[in-house]
Amino acid sequence: MFIALLIWSCGKNKSPLAKETSHNYLIESTELAKVIDLPSTKILDFRSQELYSRSHILNAINISRKDIEDSSYPYSGVIPSKNQLEKLFSKLGIQTQDTIILYDDKGMCEAARLWWILQNYDFHNVRILNGGFESWQATNGRTSKVAPKFLASNFKLPDNPSMSCIVSNKDVLDAISANAVIIDTRTIEEFEGTYMKPGSKRAGRIPNSIHIDWALNINFDGDQKFKSRHEIEKNYAHLNLEESERIIVYCHSGVRSAHTTFVLAELLGFDNVKNYDGSWVEWSYDKDSPIEFDTF
Q1: Cα-Cα-Cα-Cα dihedral of 263, 265, 268, 269, to 10°?
Q2: Which of 10, 109, 165, 251 does the annotation list as catalytic?
Q3: In the chain, where the domains are located
Q4: pLDDT digits (tens, 9 = 90+) for 118-143
Q5: Which fold does the domain 26-144 belong to in CATH?
Q6: Exposure check for the chain: N or C terminus, fewer CB within 10 A?
């Protein structure tokens, strides 16, 4: 499929789909165990505060999705500003040169959101713990009930960030008219318009979008890790995508679609994947945005 549009790149150039990708942004529990005591290893826990207080990875700091949102918008889920993120990480004692490890208990969905945010701000020293907290427990990794103490730092992101993995609602409108590939990563009920999550103004989907649930890529019936490359490839094989195909993904508020961005860009090697940050909450909020929905 040929799209006569500007080709963007999310992060570094990816290797062709036929080759093995590097998986640089994934870390296994056994690998984390080797570096957990290094001062330059900072671990962020995206689970609920209740679960965190019961047990968490040693030295992990508990944060929430709200901590990495810009609350100035009339809807939730918008990417934080560079200044907001720098203030948060400085408050948490993260140094600019540190390696940030992210984990959750939701199939790495929350972790992938922050990974995606950091890609836009050109900070690449970040890893997602494959399998999350369950994977850590399965390897008898060290845990604690005590929140770590830390000194505030002066964390800085690179100047003039590329914002290389994000698109706006105008970009999506242009993509619709250009017949670009738009993937809806929500549940089938949300896609069909029979269910509307809180925060939405209207039910339905973006016109011409294709439904592929983000959760298909996670082994939820097993170790909670990403499925094999072969299994994941099968989820998208029917699209017959070229490695440089322009792909836009969206969900309700850009979290599940950030996960699919990681899958397509890092695990499968597509080099032109963009996440629509506002996603359905923004799209449905704007009464002029066109929508589709199924009728029964």
Answers
A1: -170
A2: 251
A3: 26-144, 166-285
A4: 999 999 999 999 999 999 999 999 99
A5: Oxidized Rhodanese; domain 1 (3.40.250)
A6: C
The amino acid at residue 86 is E
Q: Rounded CA gap, 296 and 293, in Å?
A: 10
- Residue-wise pLDDT for 55-114, tens only, equals 999 999 999 999 999 999 988 889 999 999 999 999 999 999 999 999 999 999 999 999
165 labelled catalytic: no
Q: Tell me if domain 26-144 and domain 166-285 are identical in fold.
A: yes
Contact between 132 and 108 (Cβ < 8 Å):
yes
Could you please state the CATH topology (level 3) that the domain comprising 166-285 is classified under: Oxidized Rhodanese; domain 1 (3.40.250)
User: What are 203-245's pLDDT values in tens digits?
Assistant: 999 999 999 999 999 999 999 999 999 999 999 999 999 888 8
First to last CA, the chain: 32
